[in-house]
Amino acid sequence: MTYLIGIDGGGTSCRAAVADRDGRILGRAKSGAANILSDPDTALQNIIEGARAAFVEAGLDPAGITKCFAVLGLAGHNVGDAVHYVRRSLPFAEAHIESDGLIALQGALGDKDGAVAILGTGTIYIERQGQNVRYIGGWGFTIGDLGSGARIGHALLQETLLVHDGIHAPSPLTSSVLAEFHNDPREIVEFARLAKPGDFGRFAPRVFEHAERGDVIATLLLATAVWSIDEVLDRLVAQGTQKVCLLGGLAPLYLRWIAKRHQSRLTEPEADALTGAVALALARYGVDRSSAHER
Amino acid sequence: MTYLIGIDGGGTSCRAAVADRDGRILGRAKSGAANILSDPDTALQNIIEGARAAFVEAGLDPAGITKCFAVLGLAGHNVGDAVHYVRRSLPFAEAHIESDGLIALQGALGDKDGAVAILGTGTIYIERQGQNVRYIGGWGFTIGDLGSGARIGHALLQETLLVHDGIHAPSPLTSSVLAEFHNDPREIVEFARLAKPGDFGRFAPRVFEHAERGDVIATLLLATAVWSIDEVLDRLVAQGTQKVCLLGGLAPLYLRWIAKRHQSRLTEPEADALTGAVALALARYGVDRSSAHER
């Protein structure tokens, strides 16, 4: 008997699930990072290790993974070389690689139409209407990812320098940042010079916390970030989107700040991205493909 | 007889002047780049070559530079190691290294109080009241330099992606950018990933041009940039500054956009940065130091 495998591979960890040909999940497991862009060989190793561990968890012989059909959701799926290399090297009978965003959308919405706003260190929006899937944003930190944790943290450090220079009035938020850098703007500049998006992003929760307390600068920074999200939601709604799930690490923090006009469209995700990967595997490789598509 | 030397060393070229002990400029010359941070040895070589060429231009024996007193205005003057290395290696009898900004201020304002706003690829403000000199901004592209050409160009590329994604309405400005990148947002992202501040800055004049014609996006981007400058001028005025010179490549473009409340304080520079370096050399090493200070 062959099984379905779902993989949710991210930069921090890789999660795997094994399901029967009716899509019932039998076992789940977690392994190390699966970033196919920065380290494809480690990613491959962790994908395989995760799949084997899910088999063990389900009480199955892990050697069976070679007979499986798999759907993998991977960041960087749109970068051709990495994907070809990984797909060629996977041990599964058949494998289909999708974006990490698409399996998240599938998990969150099931087979319904709608959109997900993935709000984490970066931001990306995915909209599905029937068979049409459309990506918005997701262009990365340098000139994109508005509303992301990285951009919020970046804006906070910039604002802190303006306060230091006496251009803007201080607030408890900027004072806490200045204190952290020993009141030395050069330390902030040096930090920012070397910072990766995740390093900026670690300041984002602090902005939300201070905004809750009415900190003027936190409120302004957050309003700018929220505006950039509301603008995309406006666009999605204009295109016919009725349901939006907020996903990603900042989703619970953003929830109450999203504009009133969008609040009625926000829905809780039905399931997680790993479940979405299994659902896509079921649709593609399930025992009765046509019925799976119609669910 | 010994002479005074002024040096204006920048990332593109190095300018040098020789003057007599009364500060009368006898010869000027130009040599290659003098970036003491990225390439101190080439900088040293171009500083010496410039000084010798100024002597030749003045009809003097270039061997005489070793008896001179020099003031050098150099970008990166606040980075200790580079400055110590360059100062130790200079062939002059005495040498004093200042910021490129301070010699620009000295040239622009002479010995009067006031401030300069240096608006180019980056932005920095320098204010002088009597013997007190204060720097504002100049923290570099990553989290500073608001209103700079680099930040304007960066904002334009970001806006162009928002237009591509259908979040904002297009304008002739963003259409011209999209066309330049073959209507492919990935080309813009890739450009931005590799771009140095100067690469972003090359888009800034286009924003000014389109704003002159009433382009909506250009007007908005420019308003944001101008606001960041007006805010600093507000701060300078609150501290007592009465005169402001706009310097740098974007100064003539910005002039008409600066807020009305500041227009009466804007003045033309008296002289250039090289003249400022000579003036500082005169004040420091001139034939009658006390009278030079009192001028």
TrEMBL record, chains A, B:
Recorded E.C. number(s)?
Answer: 2.7.1.8
The species this protein was found in: Rhizobium mongolense
Its lineage opens with: Bacteria, Pseudomonadati, Pseudomonadota, Alphaproteobacteria, Hyphomicrobiales
Q: Which Pfam families match?
A: BcrAD_BadFG (PF01869)
EC main class here is transferase
Q: Which Gene3D superfamilies match?
A: 3.30.420.40
| Stored CDD domains | ASKHA_NBD_GspK-like
What residue stretches are annotated with the ATPase BadF/BadG/BcrA/BcrD type domain? 5-278
Q: Which UniProt keywords apply?
A: Kinase, Transferase
Which parts of the chain are coiled coil?
none
Q: Which GO terms describe its molecular function?
A: glucosamine kinase activity
Q: Which InterPro entries match?
A: ATPase_BadF, ATPase_NBD, Euk-type_GlcNAc_Kinase
Protein name stated in the entry: Glucosamine kinase
